[in-house]
Amino acid sequence: xxxxxxxxxxxxxxxxxxxxxxxxxxxxxxxxxDELFALPYFDKTDDDDFGxxxxxxxxxxxxxxxxxxxxxxxxxxxxxxxxxACLLGVENQFLTxxxxxxxNWLMKIGGYTSRKLNLVKVGRxxxxxxxxxxxxxxVRVVENIKIQLGKINNENITYRK
Length: 161
Hints:
about 160 residues, alpha/beta, 4 strands, globular
């Protein structure tokens, strides 16, 4: 299965959700500043990355996990991806998860300041605290996806420590 976590810019909430999914962060403890900003793609994208599906890794079942920034193409982007999967006959091997609803105003200010205004230090201050506020919401989203995948794969869900 191909799993794509998507958000506005593909740089923050989708990356953290994918990292949670891949067990790159401990779900019980919010990552330190250095750990968060060391995640692949976290606060490292630019306008050229928009629309690119970028691989984050393989989960414990061998599913490929990706991130995508889709800007203002809300549900239409997901529908397009699903339509393409149907044309290719792989719609049952494809799952998109939009995590834009988990983004708070601190993350929006931080992302804009860091990525658009290139005031990285200031933006990351807001990003860190905003992401901390959204962390447990993202964990719940990912846990729900893993429950679905567990049913699909007929396995129990376990997290590595």
